[in-house]
Design a protein that fits this description.
single chain, about 190 residues, alpha+beta, 2 domains, two-stranded antiparallel ribbon, transmembrane helix
Length: about 190
């Protein structure tokens, strides 16, 4: 049998007949439909995989190693370490919060450069630190808005990266490098 025929029974005559027109499709239609199915499958697969890949990193890295990795890509002259009293003053986070925190900034009020690295244990601690960092950021933006537009812009473009049990807040010129060093340290790639 030649051609693309289908057999069916004619209800009026009861005879089997060939129907040539039932399966006629334009050339390329099947390829287009198969491509559409494959494209749809890839789209839904991507929707499922991307959130799985981008899950926050819960790290077992030591706090000091994460600190060292981030500080190594920055000029130490711009980021001297602040003591617990300064952490309490600027970030409103005390030792009783149960959070390991490193805070680095110049004592110069005209500089917006800051690094905050924090390690926490619970979701509540993560939310508390994030909220206080956001409050600090907005306060600094408000302060710089009147007289230091470049410092204001630096603070507005600050990096805040919250992972599973670590946080990095960074203002400065090496945001991408600092974030990459942070993520590498969390993954154990020191």
């Amino acid at each position: 049998m030649k051609g693309n025929f289908t057999r069916f029974r004619n209800l009026k005559t009861g005879r089997q007949e060939k129907n040539k027109s039932r399966n006629k499709t334009k050339p390329g239609t099947i390829l287009w439909m198969n491509g559409l199915k494959v494209g749809t499958a890839i789209f839904f697969l991507a929707l499922w995989i991307i959130p799985w890949i981008r899950q926050p990193i819960v790290s077992s890295s030591e706090f000091s190693l994460v600190e060292q990795a981030v500080l190594a890509v920055n000029d130490p002259a711009f980021y001297p370490a602040m003591n617990d009293q300064m952490v309490r003053k600027y970030l409103n986070i005390g030792p009783q919060e149960g959070v390991q925190i490193g805070f680095y900034r110049q004592s110069d009020a005209f500089s917006a450069r800051e690094i905050v690295i924090a390690k926490f244990d619970t979701e509540q601690q993560a939310e508390m630190i994030t909220e206080r960092i956001e409050t600090r950021k907005q306060a600094q933006i408000d302060i710089y808005s009147g007289y230091a537009p470049e410092q204001q812009a630096m603070m507005e473009n600050a990096l805040l990266d919250v992972q599973g049990n670590y946080l990095l807040f960074y203002t400065g010129d090496a945001a991408a490098q600092s974030d990459q060093a942070f993520l590498d340290a969390l993954r154990g790639n020191h």
